[in-house]
Design a protein that fits this description.
About 60% of the residues lie in helices and about 5% in strands. A two-stranded antiparallel ribbon has the order 1-2. It is globular and about 45 Å long. The protein binds calcium ion (CA) (4 copies). The site of one calcium ion has 7 residues, from loops.
Length: about 180
């Protein structure tokens, strides 16, 4: 069973990626996020730049959300997601596969966030991502300061993977990674 803390965090994660707020996560949510982020970067539909962003987000859906669609109806319900999350957390510490899959997922998201492609996430980039998800810039600021544990004003890939691991698997109420999407409460 998921602890209350982990249940809250995973529910938050689910709600964040239900971008169109219809109660389930589907490909349409990831597409909407890609459209939002393209608009924020001034990238027009139909350009190859737009297509590249869309491909990355659809891959996140296919690789990391679709496997949680237990009943195969093309959408992930909260209970499906929590069932899969629970299994992953139980096995995470002893499974190189799960750890690799987590690192691959975070790297894919990191690449989406890193608008200028310099291998680091700035606060401005984090704000843009949060805006695309509908979370707002203030929440991004609150999150960023906690996630940037070494205080160098950027998130490295290693830092982001570590914080995400805390978010997804840690039962420590003070883990900085709990703030991945702002307050999980
Ligand atoms: Ca949705
Ligand atoms: Ca389903
Ligand atoms: Ca960057
Ligand atoms: Ca840092």
């Amino acid at each position: 069973m998921l602890s209350e803390l982990l249940r809250k965090k995973h529910t938050k994660n689910f709600q964040v990626y239900d971008v169109n707020k219809n109660g389930c996560v589907e490909q349409a949510d990831l597409e909407l996020c890609a459209q939002n982020i393209s608009a924020l970067r001034g990238i027009k539909t139909g350009t190859s730049e737009f297509d590249n962003i869309m491909i990355k987000y659809v891959a996140i859906w296919n690789d990391f959300w679709l496997p949680a669609d237990i009943n195969g109806d093309g959408k992930v319900e909260l209970e499906e997601y929590l069932t899969v999350a629970n299994k992953s957390i139980e096995n995470f510490a002893n499974s190189a596969n799960l750890q690799e899959s987590h690192a691959a997922k975070v790297t894919a998201i990191f690449t989406c966030l890193d608008a200028d492609g310099n291998g680091q996430i700035s606060l401005a980039e984090y704000k843009q991502y949060f805006t695309a998800l509908g979370l707002g810039e203030k929440v991004a600021e609150e999150a960023f300061v906690r996630l940037d544990e070494d205080g160098d004003d950027v998130l490295s890939l290693e830092e982001y993977i570590e914080r995400s691991k805390e978010f997804h698997t840690s039962d420590d109420p003070n883990a900085p990674g709990n703030w991945l999407y702002g307050s999980y409460q």
